[in-house]
Each structure stands twice: as structure tokens, then as C-alpha cells.
UniProtKB/TrEMBL annotation:
Organism for this UniProt entry: Daphnia pulex (Water flea)
Region span, Disordered: 1-40
Biased composition (Polar residues): 18-40
SUPFAM superfamilies reported in the protein's UniProt record: RNI-like
InterPro entries per record: LRR_dom_sf (IPR032675)
Top-level taxonomic group: Eukaryota
Designated name of the protein: Uncharacterized protein
Length: 163
């Protein structure tokens, strides 16, 4: 599997060899069913200042993979602005984990994002209202989804307002 870094050129082999590279954006270039498990744990260590991570074509990525990518202790959790995850094995649980551990996230593209934000809003309203302090700037609503009355109002609380 190869990754495409938009400024410095990074692939999976370079991630495993170099601990000094600091790409700002990584995108998987192939849609093969390759095993993501080998470079995945290295991304938070080697790419501490990563801003954009597009892993939409990683077919074997799971919630556990998301937990490897963005543990609270990783620098990446503080710098990541955009996360694009297309794998169906990443569930609402994985997206909730990413949103909770990456306070700088502005964009999360995943089919479970809306439901994850609804669940976070409901649980935070009961426990910790401060969790609603996020930087989400883009939310895509899917026309095929079923929305229940009041869900949109819960989710927009995650979007920062100017004022």
C-alpha cells in the first residue's frame, strides 16, 4: 500500500524507515485490499503534524485501527484537522473515538458521522456538556438516511458559531 503526501512524498516504506519526516497530508493511492495494519501504528509516531488523513480506500480498517491512529496521547490527536474514512468496518464507535480524541478535527467524512454526533450530543447533555466544544466545520447529510425530529438540532451544537 502506498500513501501520497502532497508536499514531501511519503509512502508506507518511508514511514517505517524514517521517524523524522513530518508530512501534513496522507492519502492512500491504491484501492487494493492491501493490509493496512503494518504502517497504521507508525502514522501517529512518524507524522506528528499531520493535518489531513484520507484513508477512504483502506478496506480492512476497523474501529481498532482508528484507536491506533488517534490515541489521546499522540501528537496527531492535536494536529489532525480532516479525517476521511470510507471503510464500512469503521462503525459509529470508531468515529466517536476520533471526535473525542481529536479536538482540532474540522472535517470527518464517514457514513456514521451524523449518528455519532447525535449519540455524543445525547450522552454529553446528560454527563459532560463541555464535550460539545468541537471544531466541526463541514457535515454531510446523506439523502438516504432517516432522520428523527430533533437530531439536527443536537448535531449543530458541535458546529462552532461566530459571535
Amino acid at each position: 500500500m502506498a500513501f501520497d503526501e502532497q508536499q514531501e512524498g511519503v509512502n508506507a516504506d518511508e514511514l517505517s524507515k524514517s521517524r523524522t519526516g513530518n508530512p501534513r497530508s496522507i492519502q492512500q493511492r491504491t484501492d487494493s485490499e492491501s493490509d493496512i495494519s503494518s504502517p497504521l501504528p507508525q502514522i501517529p509516531t512518524c507524522c506528528k503534524n499531520l493535518r489531513i488523513l484520507d484513508i477512504t480506500k483502506c478496506k480492512k480498517l476497523t474501529d481498532t485501527g482508528i484507536e491506533w491512529l488517534v490515541p489521546k496521547t499522540a501528537e496527531l490527536s492535536k494536529t489532525l484537522l480532516e479525517l476521511m474514512v470510507g471503510c464500512q468496518a469503521v462503525t459509529k464507535r470508531g468515529i466517536i473515538f476520533a471526535v473525542q480524541n481529536c479536538p482540532s478535527l474540522e472535517v470527518v467524512e464517514n457514513i456514521n458521522m451524523f449518528d455519532a454526533l447525535v449519540e455524543l450530543a445525547r450522552s454529553s447533555a446528560l454527563a459532560q456538556p463541555s464535550i460539545l466544544n468541537t471544531n466541526i466545520t463541514r457535515l454531510t447529510l446523506r439523502p438516504a438516511d432517516v432522520y428523527i425530529s430533533g437530531q439536527l438540532e443536537l448535531v449543530v451544537r458541535f458546529c462552532p458559531s461566530k459571535g
